[in-house]
Design a protein that fits this description.
By secondary structure, this protein is of the alpha+beta class. The chain has one domain: Alpha-Beta Complex (tt1808, chain A), CATH 3.90.1570. It is 20% helix and 38% strand. The longest helix is centred in the N-terminal third of the chain and has 16 residues. It starts with 12 loop residues before the first strand and ends in an 11-residue tail after the last strand.
């Protein structure tokens, strides 16, 4: 797998036939190691180990419905009241982050209603603060670290 612009972590990888699997600490199981999963697992560990988000507030591949279509959010962090706070969309490292990708995530967020949006391909990371009343996105220079009083 490709080296990413995220801190390395002690990942557990095993083979199952022709497939490589990586252990997902949050789902507590091995999952198929795809290029997107490689980015997702690195980003999860970045959120947990570097930004100090509690495991109990993080959800992976949670289902949501938009225009009668069933979608899955890559990573969603909830506040202590159970409201989505941060939505992360992960792409494989070879997938450029385009305006279409930004539109996809902001469309998901119309349903999720997270205050912060992050898009990453493991090499580039973009974060916005969403103001739903003003219908605006404020680009942030960095992804905010966990602060208990805010969540």
């Amino acid at each position: 797998m490709e080296r990413l612009n995220l801190p390395p972590f002690a990942c557990k990888i095993k083979q199952s036939g022709a497939n490589s699997l990586i252990f997902d600490e949050l789902r507590r199981k091995y999952v198929l190691l795809t290029p997107e999963e490689w980015v997702r697992q690195h980003f999860i560990h970045y959120l947990l180990l570097e930004l100090h988000y509690p495991k109990g507030l993080v959800s992976v591949e949670r289902g949501t419905t938009y225009n009668q279509l069933h979608k899955r959010t890559d990573i969603c962090i909830f506040n202590h009241s159970g409201k989505p706070e941060l939505l992360v969309e992960c792409k494989a490292a070879h997938v450029p982050i385009t305006q279409q990708v930004v539109k996809q995530v902001s469309t998901y967020n119309q349903v999720v209603q997270a205050r912060l949006l992050v898009i990453t391909n493991g090499l580039q990371h973009y974060c916005w603060q969403v103001d739903f009343e003003a219908r605006s996105f404020l680009p942030l220079q960095e992804i905010p670290a966990y602060r208990k009083e805010e969540l």
